[in-house]
Amino acid sequence: MRFKRTWMMFKARNAEFFRDRASFGWNFLFPFLIVAGFGLIFGSDVRNDYKIGIFHHLEGTVTPADTSLPEALETAPMLSFVEFETAADGIEALRHHKIDLLTATNTSDRRYWVTDGPRGHVAERLFLAALAPPECLKARQKQEIEGTPIRYIDWLFPGILAMNMMFSALWGVGFVIVRYRKTGVLKRLKVTPLTAFEYLTAQMLSRIFLLIFTGVIMWIGCDLFFDFNVQGSYIDICITFVLGGLSLCALGLVVAARGTSEEFTSGVVNFIGWPMMFLSEVWFSLEGAPHWLKLTAEVFPLTHMLRAVRSIMNDGAGLAEVWPEVGILGAMTVIFLVFGSWMFSWNR
Question: Which residues pair with 83 in a beta bridge?
């Protein structure tokens, strides 16, 4: 392996990326818009997750104070109330899952309708609990959670950053190499002294450089708005992101090892990327999910990168405490890189 040849390919790929201003700008703008949107929606940590429909309201805009709803229901922070002219309008909205529970405002019999499914079940439990006499709750003792509270945006941000890295790695490596093969660029490189391993290494290093560069800019920019609470070391977080980015780029090399069809490669990238995004706990936790689903999530590098980064950022863990995840990321990188180099073809 000649370092000079790898370095030249590394410089050429970076220059191509920075000269494409539209792609360069979108790589910054897209994740920032997602973080900003979720920050505005969930920044207050008070989410109106469940919608209660009410009908037979008074004139004008209905508020919980205008109704005879239980006081405990009126003050629940996770509920929002939607008014309807008639019960039929409310039931129609309920049928289409636009609300989770429907009840009348000024009746004493507490009639209510509820949707099937988990959201309706939770809304019903909240409604019935609000009707319970206060003395039923006196036997319960609410306990405080020890430790520094973790805001939702502090938990979510590493996931969005990692998701952006994943799609950038798979598309920026896998899709680009297939496009080079289709347009004959790889065929011309084949007649040079450049080896497949040198070429793939340069592609991977170039993409990881761009991922970390955009990630650092993203982190600094978002931190100015949301003031992230980081319990652990920034260096440890950076090392973990680099290892995770390497494993994702190496996976992109496997995708790009063969083939000349951009459409087929697009399908393969989506086939890998979307399940990885949903099962790696980018948006929500898999706590309580079936065991087989959790085992499936373990095959994705994004799962281990996110678990390690969140442990460092939210819990103050060090690299020594997340070494299983770090080790798995390193092993995945080597396996993907070797397999991709073995499978790689310049022209087919």
Answer: 54
Both tokens of 50, joined, read: 């469940």
**Residue 227 Ramachandran class (φ > 0 left, ψ -120 to 50 alpha, else beta):** left
| Matching residue, tokens 């994702």 | 248
- Positive or negative CA dihedral for 284, 288, 290, 291? positive
List Cα–Cα distances, 42 to 45, 138, 152, 226, 243, in angstroms: 5, 31, 7, 11, 30
Give DSSP secondary structure letters for 67-81.
Answer: S---HHHHT-TTEEE
Which long-range contacts does 121-124 make (Cβ < 8 Å, 24+ apart)?
122/50, 123/50, 123/51, 123/52, 123/79
For the question of whether the overall pTM of this predicted structure is more than 0.85, the answer is: no
Task: From 266, 162, 254, select the one nearest 214 (Cα to Cα).
Answer: 162
Report which of 7, 5, 4, 10 is spatially closest to residue 249, judged by C-alpha positions. 10
At 213-247, the pLDDT tens digits run: 888 888 888 888 888 888 889 999 999 999 998 89
Q: How confident is the model at residue 67 (pLDDT cuts 50, 70, 90)?
A: low
User: In the predicted model, what is the mean pLDDT of residues 159-182?
Assistant: 84
Residue/partner pairs of 156-160 with CB below 8 Å, 24 or more apart: 156/35, 156/38, 156/42, 156/283, 157/35, 157/222, 157/226, 157/228, 158/306, 158/309, 158/310, 158/313, 159/280, 159/281, 159/282, 159/283, 159/306, 160/31, 160/34, 160/35, 160/38, 160/282
State residue 72 phi and psi, 5-degree precision.
Answer: -65, -30
Using DSSP's 3-state secondary structure scheme, residue 347 falls into coil
Q: Where are the alpha helices (DSSP H) in the chain?
A: 3-19, 21-42, 71-74, 87-95, 118-131, 152-169, 176-183, 185-190, 196-226, 234-255, 262-279, 291-297, 301-315, 323-343
Output the six-digit token pair for 248.
Answer: 């994702």
Contacts of 312 (CB under 8 A, 6+ apart): 231, 232, 233, 236, 237, 240, 318, 319, 322
